[in-house]
Amino acid sequence: MKSFRMAVVAVVAAASSIFVVPGIAHAADTQLGIDVGNIAWEQLKSTNTDVQYRLKERSGTDCNFYTGFWADPNNDRYDSSGTGTCGPVSPGYMYRNGSKTWDDVRWRARAWCADFAKFAFYWGGAKYTGLTSAASSFRTYGINNGTWHARGSGYVPRKGDAAVYNWDGDADLDHVAIVTSYYDTSTDGNHYVVGGNQSNTVSHVLHSNWEAAVVGYASPVPK
User: pTM for the whole thing?
Assistant: First the structure.
Protein backbone atom coordinates (compact mmCIF):
# COMPACT_ATOMS: atom_id res chain seq x y z
CA MET A 1 0.00 0.00 0.00
CA LYS A 2 1.48 3.30 -1.08
CA SER A 3 1.56 6.63 0.72
CA PHE A 4 -1.47 8.86 0.35
CA ARG A 5 -1.25 11.50 -2.39
CA MET A 6 -3.85 14.27 -2.36
CA ALA A 7 -5.32 15.10 -5.76
CA VAL A 8 -8.24 17.24 -4.58
CA VAL A 9 -8.13 18.60 -1.05
CA ALA A 10 -10.40 20.96 0.83
CA VAL A 11 -10.30 21.24 4.60
CA VAL A 12 -13.71 22.19 5.98
CA ALA A 13 -14.96 23.18 9.37
CA ALA A 14 -17.39 20.32 10.08
CA ALA A 15 -17.99 16.79 8.87
CA SER A 16 -21.31 16.08 10.54
CA SER A 17 -23.47 17.95 8.00
CA ILE A 18 -24.78 16.09 4.95
CA PHE A 19 -25.37 18.35 1.96
CA VAL A 20 -28.30 17.21 -0.18
CA VAL A 21 -29.76 18.72 -3.33
CA PRO A 22 -33.55 18.15 -3.50
CA GLY A 23 -34.76 15.70 -6.11
CA ILE A 24 -31.70 13.43 -6.11
CA ALA A 25 -32.52 9.89 -4.96
CA HIS A 26 -30.09 8.51 -2.39
CA ALA A 27 -30.08 6.01 0.44
CA ALA A 28 -30.30 7.43 3.94
CA ASP A 29 -27.37 7.12 6.30
CA THR A 30 -27.64 4.11 8.61
CA GLN A 31 -27.13 4.38 12.35
CA LEU A 32 -24.18 2.01 12.03
CA GLY A 33 -22.63 4.20 9.34
CA ILE A 34 -23.17 7.28 11.47
CA ASP A 35 -21.46 5.57 14.41
CA VAL A 36 -18.47 4.52 12.28
CA GLY A 37 -18.18 7.99 10.74
CA ASN A 38 -18.35 9.60 14.16
CA ILE A 39 -15.48 7.46 15.46
CA ALA A 40 -13.28 8.63 12.59
CA TRP A 41 -14.30 12.25 13.09
CA GLU A 42 -13.80 12.13 16.85
CA GLN A 43 -10.24 10.90 16.37
CA LEU A 44 -9.51 14.11 14.50
CA LYS A 45 -11.48 16.54 16.65
CA SER A 46 -11.15 15.14 20.17
CA THR A 47 -9.77 17.63 22.69
CA ASN A 48 -8.17 14.80 24.67
CA THR A 49 -4.42 15.38 24.60
CA ASP A 50 -3.64 11.66 24.30
CA VAL A 51 -5.92 11.31 21.28
CA GLN A 52 -4.42 14.42 19.70
CA TYR A 53 -0.92 13.03 20.23
CA ARG A 54 -1.72 9.90 18.20
CA LEU A 55 -2.75 11.76 15.03
CA LYS A 56 0.74 12.16 13.54
CA GLU A 57 3.13 9.33 12.81
CA ARG A 58 6.65 9.72 14.12
CA SER A 59 9.17 11.31 11.72
CA GLY A 60 7.55 10.01 8.54
CA THR A 61 8.48 6.41 9.40
CA ASP A 62 4.95 4.93 9.43
CA CYS A 63 5.36 4.55 13.22
CA ASN A 64 1.82 5.11 14.52
CA PHE A 65 -0.74 4.43 17.24
CA TYR A 66 -3.40 2.70 15.11
CA THR A 67 -1.11 -0.09 13.94
CA GLY A 68 0.05 -0.37 17.54
CA PHE A 69 -3.55 -0.94 18.63
CA TRP A 70 -4.00 -3.91 16.29
CA ALA A 71 -0.51 -5.33 16.75
CA ASP A 72 -0.42 -5.18 20.55
CA PRO A 73 -0.53 -8.76 21.92
CA ASN A 74 -2.06 -7.40 25.14
CA ASN A 75 -5.13 -6.32 23.16
CA ASP A 76 -7.91 -8.91 23.13
CA ARG A 77 -8.43 -7.94 19.47
CA TYR A 78 -4.75 -8.54 18.57
CA ASP A 79 -4.55 -9.36 14.84
CA SER A 80 -1.35 -11.46 15.07
CA SER A 81 0.49 -9.13 12.70
CA GLY A 82 3.59 -9.25 14.88
CA THR A 83 5.25 -5.99 13.80
CA GLY A 84 7.98 -4.65 16.09
CA THR A 85 7.59 -1.61 18.31
CA CYS A 86 9.02 1.70 17.11
CA GLY A 87 9.35 4.02 20.08
CA PRO A 88 6.34 6.01 21.30
CA VAL A 89 3.86 4.71 23.83
CA SER A 90 0.53 6.45 24.37
CA PRO A 91 -2.71 5.41 26.07
CA GLY A 92 -5.97 4.43 24.43
CA TYR A 93 -9.00 2.23 24.99
CA MET A 94 -8.71 -1.47 24.29
CA TYR A 95 -10.08 -4.70 25.68
CA ARG A 96 -7.68 -6.57 27.95
CA ASN A 97 -8.82 -9.81 29.58
CA GLY A 98 -12.38 -9.00 28.57
CA SER A 99 -12.48 -5.54 30.16
CA LYS A 100 -12.39 -2.19 28.37
CA THR A 101 -9.40 -0.32 29.74
CA TRP A 102 -7.54 2.91 29.06
CA ASP A 103 -3.97 1.70 28.91
CA ASP A 104 -0.63 2.08 27.16
CA VAL A 105 -0.40 1.18 23.47
CA ARG A 106 3.08 0.61 22.05
CA TRP A 107 3.26 2.07 18.58
CA ARG A 108 4.16 -0.05 15.53
CA ALA A 109 5.29 0.84 12.01
CA ARG A 110 3.56 0.00 8.73
CA ALA A 111 1.42 1.85 6.19
CA TRP A 112 -1.59 2.55 8.36
CA CYS A 113 -4.58 3.92 6.45
CA ALA A 114 -6.36 0.54 6.69
CA ASP A 115 -5.48 0.20 10.38
CA PHE A 116 -7.18 3.57 10.98
CA ALA A 117 -10.28 2.65 8.94
CA LYS A 118 -10.53 -0.73 10.66
CA PHE A 119 -10.30 1.08 14.02
CA ALA A 120 -13.33 3.20 13.03
CA PHE A 121 -15.30 0.10 11.95
CA TYR A 122 -14.41 -1.70 15.17
CA TRP A 123 -15.24 1.03 17.68
CA GLY A 124 -18.26 2.08 15.59
CA GLY A 125 -19.76 -1.36 16.21
CA ALA A 126 -19.38 -2.80 12.70
CA LYS A 127 -18.25 -6.28 11.76
CA TYR A 128 -14.52 -6.18 11.09
CA THR A 129 -13.81 -9.83 10.33
CA GLY A 130 -11.63 -10.11 7.22
CA LEU A 131 -10.23 -6.59 7.45
CA THR A 132 -6.44 -6.38 7.49
CA SER A 133 -3.73 -3.74 7.15
CA ALA A 134 -4.30 -3.72 3.35
CA ALA A 135 -6.64 -1.19 1.72
CA SER A 136 -7.79 -3.96 -0.64
CA SER A 137 -9.28 -5.88 2.30
CA PHE A 138 -12.09 -3.30 2.44
CA ARG A 139 -13.11 -4.08 -1.14
CA THR A 140 -13.05 -7.80 -0.31
CA TYR A 141 -15.08 -7.08 2.83
CA GLY A 142 -17.69 -5.20 0.80
CA ILE A 143 -17.91 -7.93 -1.83
CA ASN A 144 -18.18 -10.71 0.78
CA ASN A 145 -20.87 -8.85 2.73
CA GLY A 146 -22.84 -7.57 -0.25
CA THR A 147 -22.05 -3.89 0.44
CA TRP A 148 -19.46 -3.12 -2.24
CA HIS A 149 -20.38 -0.20 -4.57
CA ALA A 150 -17.96 0.19 -7.45
CA ARG A 151 -17.12 3.55 -8.97
CA GLY A 152 -19.58 4.36 -11.76
CA SER A 153 -22.37 2.25 -10.26
CA GLY A 154 -24.48 5.33 -9.50
CA TYR A 155 -24.07 4.88 -5.75
CA VAL A 156 -24.10 7.94 -3.48
CA PRO A 157 -21.56 7.39 -0.69
CA ARG A 158 -22.94 7.42 2.83
CA LYS A 159 -21.45 8.33 6.16
CA GLY A 160 -19.34 5.50 7.55
CA ASP A 161 -18.51 3.96 4.18
CA ALA A 162 -14.90 2.98 3.57
CA ALA A 163 -13.82 4.78 0.39
CA VAL A 164 -11.10 2.84 -1.48
CA TYR A 165 -8.59 4.43 -3.88
CA ASN A 166 -6.04 3.37 -6.48
CA TRP A 167 -3.69 6.20 -7.44
CA ASP A 168 -1.79 4.60 -10.31
CA GLY A 169 -4.24 2.12 -11.82
CA ASP A 170 -2.22 -1.01 -11.09
CA ALA A 171 -3.43 -4.11 -9.23
CA ASP A 172 -2.39 -2.73 -5.83
CA LEU A 173 -5.10 -0.67 -4.13
CA ASP A 174 -3.41 2.23 -2.41
CA HIS A 175 -5.60 3.89 0.20
CA VAL A 176 -8.78 3.70 2.26
CA ALA A 177 -10.53 6.35 4.38
CA ILE A 178 -13.88 6.80 6.12
CA VAL A 179 -16.63 8.91 4.54
CA THR A 180 -17.82 11.53 7.03
CA SER A 181 -20.12 13.53 4.74
CA TYR A 182 -20.97 13.96 1.07
CA TYR A 183 -22.27 16.53 -1.38
CA ASP A 184 -25.11 14.96 -3.31
CA THR A 185 -25.05 16.90 -6.59
CA SER A 186 -25.55 13.65 -8.49
CA THR A 187 -24.80 9.98 -8.12
CA ASP A 188 -21.13 9.18 -7.53
CA GLY A 189 -20.76 12.67 -6.08
CA ASN A 190 -18.10 14.42 -4.05
CA HIS A 191 -17.41 13.08 -0.57
CA TYR A 192 -15.43 14.12 2.49
CA VAL A 193 -13.31 11.61 4.36
CA VAL A 194 -11.29 11.33 7.52
CA GLY A 195 -8.36 9.00 7.00
CA GLY A 196 -5.08 7.94 8.51
CA ASN A 197 -1.69 8.07 6.79
CA GLN A 198 -2.80 11.07 4.76
CA SER A 199 0.41 13.08 4.44
CA ASN A 200 1.64 11.19 7.53
CA THR A 201 -1.26 12.22 9.73
CA VAL A 202 -5.02 11.91 10.30
CA SER A 203 -6.79 14.53 8.21
CA HIS A 204 -10.14 15.58 6.75
CA VAL A 205 -10.23 16.04 2.98
CA LEU A 206 -12.59 16.29 0.01
CA HIS A 207 -12.46 13.87 -2.91
CA SER A 208 -14.37 13.72 -6.17
CA ASN A 209 -15.67 10.33 -7.20
CA TRP A 210 -15.13 11.30 -10.85
CA GLU A 211 -11.41 11.01 -10.29
CA ALA A 212 -9.91 7.81 -11.65
CA ALA A 213 -8.41 7.13 -8.21
CA VAL A 214 -11.76 6.19 -6.65
CA VAL A 215 -12.36 2.44 -6.86
CA GLY A 216 -15.55 2.26 -4.81
CA TYR A 217 -17.09 2.10 -1.35
CA ALA A 218 -17.59 -0.62 1.23
CA SER A 219 -20.45 0.00 3.64
CA PRO A 220 -20.11 -1.37 7.19
CA VAL A 221 -22.33 -4.27 8.23
CA PRO A 222 -23.50 -5.22 11.75
CA LYS A 223 -21.58 -7.82 13.71
Answer: 0.86
